[in-house]
């Protein structure tokens, strides 16, 4: 039986190695003392090497780089399960910090969370080495980042909504005061009092534009601009408040679904 035949009859890892080498094997006896047989063995190795060179060419730097890439990819793949576990733990901590931020927002806490997110992204990029084996983890961290941005936007909208409501309330209070003033003035100078009252009612969101214009003209035109401006200003504030309230509600609803 020849050495090749013996190799073909083997099983397990040895047979797999034999196949991986494309059955290119040489049997050597390191203890051979016969010089002729030693030379024969050496010639057999040289002949095999020469055949490989003619068939596949010399081992170039490109071959080395390809092999190095394969080795690197293998190492990354082996580390993936542990990396995923560590990243998921970090994401859990970030999510908990986001909840705390929502309950009591602060610039310091916001900065810390953003820094943690960026560090995690940098770590993933470094460990992934461009093979995209951690793409799932990238999406997970991106979701945390987006969640953070939504919470910040929600906070901004809540602040704007509060300001809009306060401005509308201030307008209504000012309108009430002017109603009293208009009533008093109406006894002394009826046209002026009518104009003030009209502007006040508009500021309170009660008087139609037609009533406002008629009352303003009755004053001789002196308070037309002020009365109309007051009414339009109030309507603008109410429109802003409604728009902000809608944005706030939609964003809040979207976050609850996550």
UniProtKB/TrEMBL annotation:
Keywords assigned: Coiled coil, Membrane, Nucleotide-binding, Transmembrane, Transmembrane helix
Domain AIG1-type G, first and last residues per copy: 4-73
Matches recorded under InterPro entries: G_AIG1, P-loop_NTPase
Gene3D superfamilies: P-loop containing nucleotide triphosphate hydrolases
Pfam family, one: AIG1
Listed transmembrane segments: 167-189, 209-235
A Gene Ontology molecular function term of the record: GTP binding
Coiled coil stretches, renumbered: 28-55
Family, per entry: Belongs to the TRAFAC class TrmE-Era-EngA-EngB-Septin-like GTPase superfamily. AIG1/Toc34/Toc159-like paraseptin GTPase family. IAN subfamily.
Name recorded for this polypeptide: AIG1-type G domain-containing protein
Species of origin: Arion vulgaris
Gene: ORF177399
